[in-house]
Specification:
By secondary structure, this protein is of the alpha+beta class. It contains 18 helices and 23 strands. The strands form 4 sheets. The protein has an 8-stranded mixed beta sheet, with helices on both faces. Strands 16, 17, 18, 19, 20, 21, 22 and 23 form an 8-stranded mixed beta sheet that branches. It has a 4-stranded antiparallel beta sheet with strand order 1-2-3-4, covered by helices on one side. β22 and β23 form a beta hairpin. The longest helix is centred in the C-terminal third of the chain and has 17 residues. It is elongated and about 95 Å long.
Length: 570
Amino acid sequence: MQEKARCVGFPPFRLDYTNECLWRAGARIDLTPKAFAVLKELVEASGELVTKERLLDTVWAETFVGDAVLKVSIGEIRRALGDACRAPRFVETVHRRGYRFIAPLESEAKEPQASPGFVAPVTHYARSGDVNIAYQVLGDGPLDLIFVMGWISHLEYFWTEPSMARFLRRLASFSRLILFDKRGTGLSDSVPLSQLPTLEQRMDDVRAVMDAVGAERAAICGVSEGGVMSALFAATYPDKTLALIMIGPYAKRIRDETYPWGPSKAEREAFYREILSDWGGPVGLEERAPSVAHDPHFREWWATYLRMGASPGAALALTQMNTEIDAREVLKSVRVPALVLHRKGDRCLLVEEGRYVASLLPNSRFVELAGIDHLPFVGDSDSIVDHMEEFLLGLRRTQEPDRVLATVLHIRFFQAGSNYSVALADLSPELSKSLAVDLRREIEWFRGNQIQLDGSPLALFDGPARAIRCACAVAERASWLGMTVSAGLHTGECDSGGGRPSGTAVRVAERIAQAAEPGEILVSSTVSDLVAGSGIDLKARGALEAGEFVSTLQLFEVRRSFTFAASALP
């Protein structure tokens, strides 16, 4: 027999202790755990003054917080009750001392009426290039929060698991929550396995969704590999990013002497085989959610979630792509406030990885939480959301950023048979004009920002793969005009103040271009680490002493067996 819910009534509301929520006319009103605890304290002391100190000591017993946090919970309670601060019907403020619950209570508690059930948000679509990206929006909080689930996702199946639905509803209680399925997974358009989304395409999809919902600046939260993309987005678009949150993150996915916490190549190969042989079942659940790994209902939900989220081939391709990524240099370039959350007993990604990620972020806070589950909605999810809420609502508006992460492209032109580069101005007027037109056209086509044409042409890109393809297109077009091109590319921070970028990344790219022989396109290891899954073929070229700019760089040569010239398109 189901246990009767304990409630206390103050018409038209009832406070449900068992389900930790409010009811009004049979409709359930969810409160965050802290707001519920505050309201419960006030109701149980009905008519009496409850001091701020008492509430802080009781509700936040093991955490040092200030009055501002309590005011946030009181504000949430007032909104839920429709209570006015100056003419209260339920919660009265006693100036500088505390609060008093003033509404009359019913003498006999009654069980709440059945809830009509939570209705999942409507799924919409945003256009990203020629791909449709599925997204949902929930809540009307004071800030926009983009939530990026790791690996694969399925927007509508999210809501069929109560723990996941509750986790997302809590996020939406203090934000306008924006969810999406990356291309090739869930409800977004399917794409060929060879075209599964690279990191920069995932960033494109986020920007498309932000445009569709009218979000000018948002906090972005990524789980696991979603954290890598979120960090890259924050570093590349600081003007669009309010803050970064990473839950159970990593910096790279293969163990080596500089990163001793990741799995070995053999362990990853074993996981690849498991995906191919066991997809359709609860693959990887023992590592990701050991506390519910033997719960038959959750096992069935996880297995169905994986099947609906991606095919076996897509899941394998995404896993292999994520394994190749190394985001360490990207993390150093994130300038927005960052929060890194990691459970101490996480078996999928070790807590040392989260601690290391936080150490690379210039403006970060690391919080180590109790628990063994990697999935944030399993186990004590309230502690995760509590830290997120406190972090986000405590943010102050920051100044416009003057440093961004970009891929810098330096180009040098050579006349046929010559090893000496020439400036466009030194060529004949007709040839100089043709090259300048083609250069602008290709940079614009690949969404670059042209900075200079004189001397060594320079352009900035928000994605490394686009920058490489632009270099190849420029080289191809120049060859039609009897010229040879060499190029150098590097991804790093650029100072954008004053309208003309400067900084180490610009100088390093120029140094790489100078090291390139006529006909060569060379990229730094920072670029190669970010183009996994792009189909670009790179060959190790050796080391470059970058002088006073950075330490020794590993270079890679772009093997050009493709045609990318925008000028050749109809």
